[in-house]
Structure formats: C-alpha cells, structure tokens
Amino acid sequence: NGNGNQVTIQQQNTGQGGHYAETVINGSYNTQNILQLGNAIKQTFVTTTGSNNTVSSYQDGLGEHYLNVNLNGNSNDAQVTQTGNTKNAATINLTNSGAPASVTLNQSGGQTYNIDRSCTTTCARVTVTQP
Which residue has the higher pLDDT, 106 or 35? Predict the structure, then answer.
C-alpha cells in the first residue's frame, strides 16, 4: 500500500522448477518491473488499484509463459513481452473512470491473449505485436 514505490522482481534459472510472481498494490505512481527467465514455467499475477501506475513484465525462455494483469484506476500502463519457444498466454484487464489506460503486448510463440478494457470516458492505445 502506498504511493511512489518501485517493485523489482527477477527470477532466473537453467534447471527444473518454475517461476511464480504475484503483486498486489494499492496506491498511485507505483512502478513494477518483473523479469522471468529460464527454461521452466513462468507465471505472473499483478493486481493494482490506483492511478498512474506502470507494470512492465518480461518473460523469456523455453515457453510456458502465463501472465494475468488487472489494473484499476486512471492513466495506468501495462508493457508486456513474452518470448521464447512457443507457449505465450496473457490476460490483461484495464478499468478506468477518467484518464485512459494503455497496453503494449509483444508475443512470439503460441501467441494467446485476452485484453478487456472498461473506460468511462476514453480508452488509450492497445498495441499488440505478434511476429
């Protein structure tokens, strides 16, 4: 809980076992950077309530990517990259009641995603790249 915080998570391996990261943040002007690398399952769950928050998630390695982001508030931004040997899955939910929220999603592999936006006034950009 709070404003102006920065959370950095880095998980990496070259053997068995997977990565699991979960954040729950209530506040504004917070930044979350989540990096998961390696050859095992990578799972990220982010729930953020407040305004002007940024989530940056990068999952790379031998497949098994899954990400679930819920941003509730104004002017929030999700930047997600999932790459490396097939399975990609992302669910991103944005809810705002005024200023727009935005998403940038880059996937290479299995390329499965669901983006749900609920905007009271205007919605911001959603950019999806799947080479």
Answer: 35
